[in-house]
Amino acid sequence: MKLFIKKVKPILLHPTTLILTLLFLKVIAFRVVVFHNKSVFHIALIEFPLWAFLLSLIVLFVKKRTWTGIFVFNTILSVLFIAIIYYTRYFSTIPSYYDLQQLYQSNSVGGTVGLLSKPYDFLFFLDLLLILPIAYYYNAKKIKSSAKVTRQLAILFGSIGLITTLLAFRQPLIDVSYFAKENGYLQSQAVQVFTRSFGIALASDVNLSEQDVEKLKGNDYVPANKHNSYGIAKDRHVFVIQVESLQGFVINRKVNGQEITPYLNALLKDSTYFDNVYQQIGAGNTSDAEWLMHTSIYPEGMDPTVNVINGKPVPSLPRTLQRNGYGTATYHADDITYWNREKLYPALGFDYVYTNKEIPAEQEIGFGPADEVLFDFAAKQLPMQFKKHEKIYSNIITLTSHTPFEMPEDLQYLVLPDSYDSTYVGNYLQSVRYTDEQIGIFIDTLKEAGLYDNSLILVYGDHSGVHGAPVTKDDEAILLDLLDHPYNLQDRFIVPVIFSGGGLFSGETISHLGGQIDLMPTLLNLLGIEHDAQMIGHDLFHYENNLLGMRYHLPGSSFINDDTLYVAPSAKLPAILYNLETMKEKSRTNKTQQSIDNALKIMQQSDQILKSYSNRK
User: Fold this and answer.
1) Which of 37, 483, 552, 556 is the most exposed place for a label (fewest CB within 10 A)?
2) What are the pLDDT digits (tens) for 292-348?
């Protein structure tokens, strides 16, 4: 036994063994936190080798300052792991290499870092404190890592990593988080780099017509000009208001006896309200909502779609309206580089683009000028546009109700219960209440200018604001009190969609299932205008059945149909099937797989269209 210990001890205390052991423990912690993966064997075989290979290269090639190289490598790795963990806590999905590049513009994460942290996060930096005395000891003893042993380890780890990466390329990349759990984080990034370079998401050689797509949704196709609501708003001006973080549960709801959205509630009396429309954004968040609204094509999913298009002109709502005599303008009070809108707007083809360079930097709240300033500026541009165009299209994107939803005290219009004070949900309600009032004032401005009775107005939410790690136990209790049921995926993903305009609608509520992909076809139907390219969405006034896909914020191959919300297996959870009426789990049937297949076919068709756009010169 003593002889065995004598032989093993130098190996165990060898500097290479110690630094690899620390790395292995860090990788285990990362996998447990992000994937709930506690299989040491799986981690050792799939996740660890590539990280160990990279560290071995540091030891081999940084010869003069080896310990400095080791320390820097582990520091970078700790920061990377924390960034991935925080991103996952907020968005509930694993970030790609591209998402991490874009963290500088992810205001939604940056503004809530304090809410995302956990007490144990510092443990990811603990190894750095251990490396310092280890390095001091071995330097003092003048003990160096064996180049031969390190080279052999690098070959071993590199070979295992290469094999697992090649095997990963043989797996379908439908959901990034699940793929990374099964195949390794670095392997998933390699596959994504390849996919981004040589293909788009699920793009294939499918060629479905609009008739085929409607059949997959469960509808009989009817030409747009045969729909009952076709052309009822013909030749009207168009105002689209995309509201930051506006969720459906706030509409017609009171807190402490006060309406959360009194102005939108009043607008409903002169509108058609679609109360069963789901967000469908991808990694591009707000810019993906704009993409859906203006193309009726699914977002790419893994990356902001605008980066795939890279500014190339695409068939869009603005271009279709321009061919029908409209001048088109878009307004967003943030920097145009936020989510790369400097590429989005040329791709969509707006005549006028107004951002923080043109919109006055006044009364700033959060990330830019308050919505009051935005709407006032938009209203003041109308006379100039009317001199050049008989009809106008204004696309207005609000900003104030952006996470973390912190409002100046004098603009907190709601008197909330004490339990709501300084909570995430309480702040959210205050910011939504403020923006609601600014929308009301803007619509009153249109009425005073005599425009309301000759306009078609669409108000919709871009995505959820209440989700992820910032939602604490106190927030969950508030939501339970507010909603009379535990906050669920319907509450999170349903966004309000309101079509309004003088004399057009009579206050009806339509509960047909819809997605943001359906907004453009519905708008064009009301205007009596036909688009010259295929749209994946459809007219919500006409079609009763639907089948929606969702990427990024739900695992790949998830779907929503008229009675079911299917959440595909993820990195942390098995597949779940919800009854939409009760939001209780239900059993899987043969129809479930058919719906999965149909939803994937529809998204493949969408990706094929997107690929054709991106390949344009």
Assistant:
1) 483
2) 999 999 998 777 788 888 888 999 999 999 999 999 999 999 888 777 788 899 999
> Does 180 share its domain with 243?
no
For residue 603, pLDDT over 90 is answered with yes
* Inside any domain, residue 498: yes
Q: How much is the average pLDDT of 410-429?
A: 96
> CB of 354 within 8 A of CB of 198?
no
pLDDT at 4 over 80: no
- Of 518, 478, 473, 471, which is closest to residue 495 (Cα–Cα)? 518
Q: Is residue 45 part of a domain?
A: yes
- Sign of the Cα pseudo-torsion (348, 351, 356, 361, in order): negative
CATH code for position 457:
3.40.720.10
264 assigned to some structural domain: yes
C-alpha closest to that of 606 among 537, 523, 557: 537
Structural domain containing residue 148: 9-198
Q: Residue 477, Cα to own-chain centre: how many angstroms?
A: 25
Give dist(CA 99, CA 340) in Å, integer: 13
- Give the tens place of pLDDT for each residue, 338-377: 777 888 999 999 999 999 999 998 899 988 899 999 999 9
Cα gap 366→354, rounded to integer Å: 19
Residue 490 parent element (H or E): helix 489-493
Closest C-alpha among 516, 144, 141, 487 to residue 305: 516
- What CA–CA distances, in Å, run from 91 to 106, 251, 562, 611? 11, 24, 26, 26
Closest residue by Cα to residue 516 from 564, 464, 593, 568: 464
177 and 81 in one domain? yes
Residue 2 lies in a domain: no
Count other C-beta atoms under 10 Å from residue 141's C-beta: 9
Residues whose CB is less than 8 angstroms from the CB of residue 232 and which lie 6 or more positions away in sequence, other chains included: 504, 526, 528
pLDDT on residue 285: 84
Same domain, 145 and 242: no
Same domain, 180 and 312: no
- The answer on 250 and 142 residing in a single domain is no
255 and 174 both lie in a single domain:
no
Evaluate whether 566 touches 596 at the Cβ level (below 8 Å).
yes
- CA–CA gap between residue 179 and residue 48 (Å, rounded): 16
**Nearest-10 crossing angle of helices 48-61, 185-198:** 90
For residues 392 and 323, membership in a common domain is answered with yes
Looking at the structure, do residues 173 and 241 belong to the same domain, yes or no?
no
- Which residue, 533, 507, 510, is CA-closest to 520? 533
For the segment 82-105, the average pLDDT, to the nearest whole number, is 77
Determine the Cα–Cα distance for residues 82 and 166; give it in Å rounded to an integer.
Answer: 27
- Structural domain count, the chain: 2
pLDDT at 109 over 70: no
Cβ(561)–Cβ(578) below 8 Å: no
Q: Which phi and psi (to 5°) does residue 102 adopt?
A: -95, 5
Q: How far is CA 236 from the centre of its chain?
A: 32
Last residue of a domain, one of 198, 223, 255: 198
Strand, coil or helix: 164: helix
Using the 3D structure, point to which of 520, 543, 566 is the last residue of a domain.
543
Q: What is the pTM of this model?
A: 0.87
Range scoring the smallest mean pLDDT among 94-103, 112-121, 602-611: 94-103
